[in-house]
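Lab meeting, item 3. Inverse folding demo.
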């Protein structure tokens, strides 16, 4: 069989001897297997590097529960012992005593708000807004038959409207004009 390479019209034909079919199949299969082996080797090396990175990262990690390297809080062997015992080991950095944390320290005026602030609902510094006991107590659903408020139709409605206006005036804050300095 004759093959023509670099065919550019009739005048520039280069004739080559044809390759045997058995040689073509073996060489293609061999090349394909070598390519797959190289690809598998690359993937294996990449996987080994990834596993090594994970292992070094895990060894550098320090547990926040027992303060030992090599595992995290979720894998801590001492986690089942409870936090009550661990609180005795920790020292409050404000007063130096060993039985409480800084956020619960009696000599800490800021409480759980180290940069200042307080609960938006009641103004206390010992809890956050979402855990406010007063707010949670008011959000509870009333029991069936409980009277929430009463309405007297004989009451003067103008006084109610005036009260609402006064409340709105108190609540709305007048905006100051912006001063831009260049």
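The presenter then showed the designed sequence:
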């Amino acid at each position: 069989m004759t093959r023509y390479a670099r065919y550019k019209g009739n005048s520039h034909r280069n004739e080559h001897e044809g390759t045997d079919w058995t040689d073509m199949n073996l060489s293609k299969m061999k090349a394909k297997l070598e390519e797959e082996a190289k690809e598998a080797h690359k993937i294996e090396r990449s996987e080994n590097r990834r596993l090594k990175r994970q292992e070094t990262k895990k060894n550098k990690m320090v547990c926040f529960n027992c303060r030992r390297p090599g595992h995290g809080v979720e894998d801590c062997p001492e986690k089942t012992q409870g936090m009550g015992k661990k609180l005795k080991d920790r020292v409050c950095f404000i007063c130096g005593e060993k039985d409480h944390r800084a956020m619960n320290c009696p000599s800490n005026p800021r409480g759980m708000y180290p940069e200042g602030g307080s609960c938006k609902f009641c103004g206390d510094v010992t809890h956050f807004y979402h855990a406010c006991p007063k707010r949670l107590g008011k959000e509870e659903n009333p029991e069936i038959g409980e009277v929430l408020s009463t309405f007297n139709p004989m009451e003067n409605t103008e006084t109610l409207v005036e009260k609402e206006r006064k409340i709105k005036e108190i609540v709305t804050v007048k905006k100051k004009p912006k001063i831009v300095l260049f």
